[in-house]
């Protein structure tokens, strides 16, 4: 029996949603184990869902968002004591958004071989999810209260992955270009510095997450134009204005 990609995506989303929902129902020790399995399963099931047509670097770039999205929700269920209503609500939100993300990744998979009309929609989904994951993940990371060195290191690794998949989506090549890799590393270094500096301000985890997500927004916006070859001074000023405005707003709120 041949299962279509859409059905595989639905099955994967449902299985991962059930695993996510089970995390707060277990003891903390067991929850950590299920969380680790959940993260690994998010990659395995995502690959299984989109296996047909996968080539080269796609085995990495197409699954960064699904895995980080799953990791973020898993951390949320581990850290926050939620009521049953919110557990159910967030599980539904997770399953629905994961389904949409995998559909978008499938569009990238197909578009790597031939141009299709839905590519613009996939870019929009990828961009929004990247910003959401940036905000949610870094907010949760700041909330853990880990060592500053470890915080910066994790931020660099996660940032590199987020930038990598975002910049790769521009040309959708089978192999990763040196420009995309170098740009991702440089942007992640800048993001790590933003996060490092933010840790010295009395920001709440959510405010620190917003500062991090704003940094991701500015860097992706500017570098996307650069890679496409249509970067202008006006575009740089617009993105920097947003970044500076958000940071000033956060400082005002902290000092008020």
Please characterize this protein's 3D structure:
The chain has 256 residues and is mainly alpha-helical. It has two domains: 1-116, no CATH class; 134-256, no CATH class. The protein has ten helices and no strands. It has helices spanning 5-22, 28-50, 58-61, 64-79, 84-111, 119-144, 148-171, 178-198, 205-228, 233-255. α6 packs antiparallel against α9, α7 packs antiparallel against α8 and α7 (148-171) packs parallel to α9 (205-228). The longest helix has 28 residues, at 84-111. The termini are far apart. The mean pLDDT is 89.
What pattern of helices and strands is seen along the backbone? HHHHHHHHHH
The tally of beta strands, per DSSP, is 0
Count of spatially separate domains: 2
3D shape: globular
Compute the average pLDDT.
89
Radius of gyration: 19 Å
Structural class: mainly alpha
Number of helices, counting only DSSP H or I runs of 4 residues or more: 10
Helix percent reads over 70%
Separation, N- and C-terminal Cα atoms: 63 Å
Strand proportion, as a percent range, falls in under 5%
Keywords: Membrane, Transmembrane, Transmembrane helix
Summary of the model, kept short:
Keywords: Membrane, Transmembrane, Transmembrane helix. With 256 residues, this protein is mostly helical.
């Amino acid at each position: 029996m041949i299962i279509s990609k859409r059905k595989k995506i639905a099955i994967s989303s449902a299985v991962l949603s059930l695993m996510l929902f089970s995390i707060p129902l277990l003891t903390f020790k067991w929850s950590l184990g299920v969380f680790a399995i959940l993260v690994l399963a998010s990659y395995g099931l995502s690959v299984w869902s989109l296996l047909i047509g996968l080539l080269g670097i796609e085995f990495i770039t197409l699954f960064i968002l699904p895995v980080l999205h799953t990791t973020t929700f898993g951390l949320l269920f581990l850290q926050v004591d939620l009521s049953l209503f919110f557990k159910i609500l967030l599980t539904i939100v997770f399953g629905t958004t994961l389904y949409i993300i995998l559909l978008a990744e499938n569009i990238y998979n197909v578009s790597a071989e031939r141009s299709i009309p839905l590519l613009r929609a996939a870019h929009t989904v990828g961009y929004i999810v990247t910003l959401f994951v940036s905000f949610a993940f870094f907010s949760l990371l700041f909330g853990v209260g880990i060592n500053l060195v470890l915080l910066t290191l994790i931020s660099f690794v996660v940032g590199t992955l987020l930038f990598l998949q975002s910049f790769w989506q521009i040309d959708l090549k089978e192999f990763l270009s040196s420009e995309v890799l170098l740009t991702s590393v440089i942007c992640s270094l800048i993001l790590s510095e933003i996060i490092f500096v933010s840790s010295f301000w009395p920001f709440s985890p959510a405010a620190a997450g917003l500062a991090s997500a704003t940094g991701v927004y500015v860097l992706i916006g500017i570098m996307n134009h650069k890679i496409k070859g249509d970067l202008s001074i006006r575009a740089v000023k617009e993105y920097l204005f947003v970044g500076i405005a958000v940071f000033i707003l956060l400082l005002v709120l902290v000092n008020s």
